[in-house]
Specification:
five-stranded antiparallel sheet; HIT family, subunit A; alpha+beta; 3 helices; 5 strands
Length: 141
Amino acid sequence: MSSVFTKIINGEIPGRFIWRDDRAVAFLTIEPLSYGHVLVVPVEEVDRWTDLDQRTWRHLNEVAQMVGAAIPECFDVPRAGYIIAGFEVPHAHIHVFPTSSMADYDFKRVIPADQTDPEKMDAAAAKLRAALGTDDDGRPA
């Protein structure tokens, strides 16, 4: 059974991609801590980040760092947060999100999927793609 992330990667479920290559993807989460909250996910379906091969792990962090560098300029925040949680979907992923304080790291504060504003989600994805130089599918332009 494919994970929900594999289904997003394969186009079976829609996703707002901001980065895509043969090893990793980055897309907006449907339940963000704030608008601009991105998940960096390996294309290969591996449950625990500690089981990823070193090459993939390095690449995921390179993508996360690129996204993290874009977040402050796109969302007028001092930092990008970085979390590995990994219990909600059995597919390794890194959370990268706009943050102004440690209070922003509280997953009890997520915006539920049915309460996110699609226009704000689309605008956040567009800002990040512009900063990263990627197209609407997240591929480098």
